[in-house]
Amino acid sequence: xxxxxxKTLESNSLFELEGKPSLKKSFPIALQHLLAMIVxxxxxxxxxxxxxxxxxxxxxxxxxxxxxQAGMFIAAIATFLQLYPVFKVGANLPVIMGVSFxxxxxxxxxxxxxxxxxxxxxxxxxxxxxFIVGMNIKKIYKYFxxxxxxxxxxxxxxxxxPVALNYMAGGNGNPNQGDxxxxxxxxxxxxxxxxxxxxxxxxxxxxxILLGIIAGxxxxxxLGIVNLASIGQAQWLTLPKLLPFGLDFPLDxxxxxxxxxxxxxxxxxxxxxxxxxxxxxxxxxxxxLEGGIKANGIASIFGSFIGGLPTATYSQNVGIVSLTxxxxxxxxxxxxxxxxxxGFIPKFGAIMLSVPQAVIGGATVTVFAQITMxxxxxxxxxxxxxxxxxxxxxxxxLGMGIVQLGDQxxxxxPEWFRMVFTSSPVVLATVVVFVLNILLPKKTLEEEQKxxxxxxx
Length: 457
What we know:
The protein is an all-alpha fold. The chain contains 20 helices and 2 strands. The protein has helices spanning 4-11, 23-52, 61-83, 104-114, 116-140, 146-168, 180-199, 202-206, 208-223, 229-233, 251-280, 286-306, 315-324, 329-344, 346-353, 357-380, 386-402, 415-421, 425-439, 445-456; strands spanning 97-99, 311-313. It has a two-stranded antiparallel ribbon. Helix 5 runs antiparallel to helix 12 and helix 7 (180-199) packs across helix 16 (357-380). Mean pLDDT is 83; it is low at 4-9.
């Protein structure tokens, strides 16, 4: 029986799902979740609208800014759904949602071929497909033992390392990428994060990433690599619009996007598994997986009507959960409110976006490392039989290997195959481990040892 004092302490805990910690304790961690996701949440819109520039399907600068802001609205709505489920839509887990990097190749391909209306039309259908996958995830969850879901999580972590390191060098598309100023700022940020995380205690330890970003930002200001122009140019207020670009449904675009939503739903199993493994030391329940995937589908459907791009669980924020062990929903509610504010007030988002990518890279590389180690933890919680080692090894080898190939190596494959299987190593790795786990005969370590003993007789 818990004493009254113990119950009070528990109710104020950052490390309990239903804890009620003070704003002073919650806000720094909520802010670092915001800073970890905001760049990633805006980049897909920036990349897509940039690719459409100087084409027949180009959109205006104001429309481009609106796509970014709509992404903030959708991220906030999706995160709230995950925290506070409605009619079993939502995981009831500490998860941050946002516009997904994984869709960028598909979005640009559809946008360049058909325009923005086709992007949102195919997204609408894809969201419905994701919702259906969520409804049936309990039936197929048995096909995702720790070995399979762990491989997905591990591949997610490995695939994010180039992102972090490119950020540390100044960011892709930066004409000065590789300048020693960027590396110096990134390393300073990383050192501050490590020192705070390993040597500090209390709130300083929990807010290590935020403190690293602050230190890196101050250094960036001193070195003159912070661009403040976007803050002055940004508007003060924007509101969601209904069907700002219309809807169109080309068959090949719909099929490709639907496949991507299926794959993304499987990847969500990995992120949700990583969240529960890192934050609660357990696998996710069937209800959590079902609600989480359905919420992602609903958010993407809603996004197609207001101009927000497809959403996904955010691996970098999953990594922060694994690093800090903070799982209190109140913390994530504050993050969702901040994301929503950023959606209404473009200047707020512009301030966040002024943080140089080198700083974000230095702060998040440790987060991505945590994701990788969470995946390894899940994998090794299963038996490391020769069968399982082979499946995991092949999945990672093929998934990580295919994204390293040049265009010529895959030129003979259809475009939809290249769009789906070469945009991210997670896709192929997931398919390989999923299929092989079903097809290859199950053998325990004990059974494999008996086979070797019989060969010696």
